Amino acid sequence: PVACRGMSARRQRRHPAGLPARLAAPRTRPHNAWCVFVEWVPPANEDLDDEAFSYELRCRKDGTEHEMLLVDIGPEPRAQFNDLEAGQKYFFQARTRNSAGAGPWSFWSSGYVVPELDTIHRTHIEAAASRLRHPKTHSENARSAVIRWEEPCSHGAQIMGYRIQYASDPEDPDTVFSLTVWRRDTFLQIDGLLPNHVYFFRVSAINEVGESEWTPWSEGFATRAVEPEAPLAPELVSAQPHEVVIKWAPPFACGFKILRYDVLVSKNDPSMDSAVEVRGSGVAAEEPSLYLRDLDPNTTYYFQVRAESAMGMSPWGQRSQAICTTSTAPDMCTGLKVVGNDSDGVSLEFVAPEDNGSPLTSFIVRWASNPWMTPEIGSIEVPATLKTQKGAMVFCRVTGLLPGTCYHFDCAARSRAGLGKFCQSTQEVVTAPAVPAQPDAPKLAERTATSMLLYLDDTTFDNGAPITKYELRYDRTSSFSNPVRCIGSMHVVGTHARPRRFEYPVTGLTEHGPYYFSVRAINSVGPSPWSGPSTAQFLQLESPIRMAPPRLVASEITTLLIAYSPPANLGSCVGGSILEYEMRYARTHAALHEDSQTETTLLAGPADAAQFPHLPTPAVGRRGEAVAAVDDIEKVWKLRWKPPPHDANPPPQLIKQLLTGRTYFFQIRSVSAYGAAPWSNISEPFQTKPSPPAKPPPVTCVAEGDSCYFAVLRLTLPDANGRKITACRLRVVGPSWKNGPTATEWRDFGQSELDRVKADDCRIVELPLGPEASTGELGTTTAWDYTAMGLQPGAAYRWRVCCYNDVGASEWSDPSEDIMTLPTVPNQCEPPFLEKESDASSSCLRVSWRPPHNNGADILHYTLMWTINPRWQGVHTVEGIPEANILLENLAPNQKHYFKVLAWNAEGPGRESVLDIRSPSGTGGVISTLARVPTPPRNIQACAIEKVAGAVHVHWEKPEDVGGSMVTRYKVLYALTEDFDEFSEVVQKASRECRMMDMKPDQVYYIDCAAANIMGYGSRSGHPVKVKTNPVPPACVVAPRRPDQPVLSLIAGKGWADSEFEVRWNCPEKTDPAKGFVYDEATQTHPILHYTILLRGGMPDPEVAEHVTDIEYIEQARGKKMTPKNKSNLARFKTVLPGRYYQALVQSFSEAGSSGWSIASDVVRAPPGVPNAPLHLKVVESDAKSVTLEWPCPSGNGEDISEFVLQCCAERVLQGWNGGDPLPPGSGDPSVGQYIVPEGDDRIMRTESLTLKACAVPGAFLEGSYAAIGASDDGQICRWKVDGLQPASFYSFNIAARNLIGMGGAIACESMRTDTVVTGPTGTPAGVPKYTSLSSVRFMWEPPAYLGGKLVEGYEVRWVVVPYVELQPEELPGMVLGEHSRSAQVAAEQTMFEVSGLRPGDSVIPLIRARNGNGYSKWSRMPNALQLETLRSLADVPQVLQKAPTLERGAPTDHRPFSLVARWVCPCHSGELINFFELRFTPIMDDLDEQCD
């Protein structure tokens, strides 16, 4: 091993001379697999001014007694060991030596195990031992290294750069990587290396002549090892309800032994925010597994693992998948008790048990007659909710129990894992008695004309209490809508009979019936429900006699008012009176005869005399209105109504909706409960008043389609309603055609609405009545045939008609069916036109026209006529065109065409369109084709020009088709291949020959031509000719000269992004203005063909080569005599880095080869730009209200950074934080405790401008950062603390740098969350009066609205009991939080608490605070006066005096000789102040030996 002495010294305090003190045991710090540093703490009496001060170190390998001693290490408390034996364990001791001598040896260090060679890499190196080389040097970085070499001899040409190769195994080509550096520095930082690997490198120098040979491979250098990789996700081995076993694969650790594993365990939280860390030990690191117990059943857990080796701690590995413990049945329920017992059922209460990880789904409550629950009488299932957790009170009610019966109850909880054990059953519970069951309906024993006797047998179930009596009621309807209660109760008949019989006589009945009876039973609890109705019961009655015929009172258009007289025996019927009246009427006398078989229709309706205000209001019929809607001459209508009170002149009946002008006959009779009287005699005929005609039927057509311009309409006259029809009036909608829009607006037919159709204008027709037209006594109906003139051909019309008589006009009839006129030939077409520009081409035209009106018959086809002669000669005709357009092909290009068109339908052809030859092309029937490109030239020939190298003469003939326009120019194309993949071209005017001089000598070319006119170039011929150029005469070959120094200039724009560099140079050839290129065997033999321009730049020197770019194949422009055009020798570079220094180099190329690079141009600086975006932005510290951000200062790109712009954006903000404290429930803000997601501009909370000086961390720079002009702070670490944030909220930040040029790009950090805090206060506790008793008070509170980012884990309840008279509100807070208060812990699900053991009237003053993972919240508010009233136990009467009162004689000054003074101790008031005392005393008469109260 080689020990390396430290190079730097440490300043220490001076101590008095003497032997050095004992050192602490050294510790090892591995660098990689081949290198380890041994460090120790200097002694307390270290004296660096002592020239003899030094350290000594000895090393011992495990298993041997041999030691290696290292002396004179120097004053640096550190030593480096390289190439220790792999797989062995080493121990180290250190001591100090000064001028006084050597101090004692330290204790041995802990053992250091050197990694095995086959485990230092991720993959095993299967190679010979000679290829596993040991490094000579070591890099301080894990993924980069700086290599150095010495500059070689340049051999007369300046070195321009180096080519570097590096490899982990030089003998394996797959591991060799190459780099090219265009600068003269002899050092280079190589990035992208692998940690804990050995690398070798070699170098080749580059000058303008070429590259040197490779150097031999260097000695190996090793990169630093790193901490272990993040372990993979743990996997489940086994799971039980309360324990799991997990395992994971050991991570790659660069061969170093894993010292320990740490495991994060998270319960039901895949984000791992609330995870608990389980720290491992060295013993546990041997086996990558973990056994966890005391877990919750059926609960999801997540795990993460990290490993620690001698190199450090790995990051947390991948999160495992959800690992669940198995489920088990719930525990036994507790606290089962009866809280209610009434006639409806029994109320039970119990406490929900632990669910053992599987949510409770329901509870089973069962009951039996004994505590062993056998046999089971019944059970119910009580569903559970999400809030039903351990400790929750569960209430249920059991119904359907028999009253007054003994029962026992127990219960059990059920979850998806199964049913838990049943709890201990309750004590004996006797259900409360109930009202009797519903009795049977009573039965009829006897009846008379005015009374009935009802009876009932006592068989009703009494439900636990004996029946004491029965009550009776009756009604005229079975629904008992208006019942009559019988006075008293039913009487028992025969007290010894079983079952008992009860009877009751009902007297004073006047109506015939029906009567319905019902009873109910009564016991000590109350009355039972009424029984169902009995069967209908009736009294015996007599029918009334025949009535007089009805008589007419008044007549209107559709109504008759009819009067009648009551029957003679009205009111003399035994047992009751008239129930209703019936009236019938018909159009004929015969329909009302007794032997008539005419159908009778029962009408509904009360008679209505509203149109006769001078008459009394008629009685209301039983079945609604009396109506007669149709005129049926043989039909009979009937109506009924209830009788009015007994009167000699009852109100008349109004018969409505009769036909006007008609005659009707009437009959009437009365109906009693016993039966109906015979019908009265038939009345005299009564007639209604006349009215306007009825609504006419729809119009029909007599001769549809007889003409194109008129139609004969049939107007069928309706019922005249008592007056003759004198005229008709027509309305029409139309015309409407089949393929056109449908007319919808109705209009009067004629000049005005006064034009009416009269009988003189029509032909009168008598039509027989059909089976559906029963309009009166007549056997025919009349129709008028009217001829409507002035209609459109082929059109549809719809008609409506109304009729007039002397009374007025009828309604309009319904619209008729469509009435059509005959079609005719189509209208004249409009001239054809060009619909769009794309319809015209050089040889085709798509001609369009608008379809004309078809005049009622669909257009079948079109005929098109066209010519190119404006005098309409040589016409072409196209017939049978189905659409309104046609495509004409094979037309001449650039030619006017003239068109006419006509349309055909079934009636024949229409008129042809009009041609306007003066209209522009595309309209008026005049349309032109377009010109087209010419065809290829013909007969192309080419030959080489004699005695001229690289020259060809080409000639050709005119194209066969010029495309309608003259040829203006030709294009000659030549290529080295026949398929013309790459070609060049020469363009000239209409001359049909060309001489091409710039072609390569001794080369075969393929030549083709294309012609052009005003439409552009046509295609080439496709048959190129083949020709070979003459070669250059034989000569020697000389490479081109090296160009002179180029000129680099900056073309400034608005900024660096718009600026560009321009490079100009001169051609280094010798030329003659008259002859062009001068051939010289000694200096130049071939003209320069092209150049390559190299542009390199960097900061602060271009040779840093931070940016290198080039442009190749820039052709040398030449004149007619091959003279170079130096003005064309320029190149422009647009992509440059701002603020960098650049220089340009030029290299020329000819057929003889390439020149060397020119001398570099003068240095030019690029314009400065805005700063770069910072590399990253991360959060390094955070608390509940602030975060600290860190970022590296980016490059200023030529200007110093003046400030940073930091923007804070809110992603999700937890509402409810106000002035440093959370809001309590009921604060008026409904968003408290909710996350609000701002949108738009509301997301931006603030924007801050920070100077670099304000946020820079002193002395903190990134590794590898360099200072440059305008970037002096590049790599500086900056920090800034952002205050004023909300707890448990999510924020994102972005930052950008600004310099004099402007603001650079921004970098954003991922969304982060501020720390959580304690919850807000709970709601003020308030009592629950329904649970208050003499000795207990139950109160509840509202959970905190603001949770602070974590769930509530529980509550602390603190209370004090205060007697009623001692309640002083100002002293309450101190009393509740004082030493005499009591407290209890409550689960998070429970928001109700009961305090028991109180005296009557005592007040409980509670305070509540919530607890989460961060601690306790503030106490809740003190209850107010109203809430304090609900926190008192119930008051009771004062307690009994504990001591008897005492009697004393009055005071000596008392003038009353017989007065006594009574004294007693005031007892407990039991919650209410004592109002007064009652004193009872008893005189004792000694002489009589008796007492008087």
Rg measurement, Å: 60 Å
Q: What share of residues is helical?
A: under 10%
Count of β-strands: 104
- Helix-strand makeup class: mainly beta
- What is the average per-residue confidence, as pLDDT, rounded to a whole number? 83
Biggest β-sheet, characterized? 6 strands, antiparallel
- Our estimate of the beta-strand percent is 35-45%
Given as residue ranges, the uncertain stretches (5+ residues, pLDDT < 50) are 1-16, 123-132, 571-576, 606-630, 771-778, 1263-1272, 1487-1493
General shape:
flat
Task: Provide tags for this entry.
single chain; mainly beta; disordered N terminus; disordered C terminus
Task: Indicate the topology.
Elements (H helix, E strand, L loop, with lengths): L1 E4 L21 E4 L4 E5 L14 E8 L5 E4 L7 E5 L6 E10 L2 E2 L9 E2 L23 E2 L5 E5 L10 E9 L8 E6 L5 E5 L6 E10 L13 E2 L12 E5 L4 E4 L12 E8 L8 E4 L9 E4 L7 E10 L2 E2 L9 E2 L9 E9 L2 E7 L8 E9 L7 E8 L9 E6 L7 E10 L2 E2 L9 E2 L12 E5 L4 E6 L11 E7 L8 E2 L5 E3 L7 E6 L9 E7 L28 E5 L4 E4 L14 E9 L13 E3 L33 E6 L11 E3 L7 E10 L13 E2 L12 E2 L8 E7 L10 E10 L10 E2 L8 E2 L4 E6 L11 E10 L6 E9 L14 E2 L24 E4 L10 E9 L8 E6 L3 E4 L7 E10 L2 E2 L16 E3 L9 E7 L7 E6 L11 E7 L7 E7 L3 E4 L7 E10 L2 E2 L7 E4 L18 E5 L8 E5 L6 E2 L3 E2 L10 E11 L8 E9 L14 E4 L7 E10 L2 E2 ...
Parallel strand pairs: 10-16, 43-44
Antiparallel strand pairs: 1-6, 2-3, 3-6, 4-5, 4-7, 7-8, 7-9, 11-14, 12-13, 12-15, 15-16, 17-18, 18-21, 19-20, 19-22, 22-23, 22-24, 25-26, 26-29, 27-28, 27-30, 30-31, 30-32, 33-34, 34-38, 35-36, 35-39, 37-38, 40-41, 41-45, 42-44, 42-46, 46-47, 48-49, 49-54, 50-51, 50-52, 50-55, 53-54, 55-56, ...
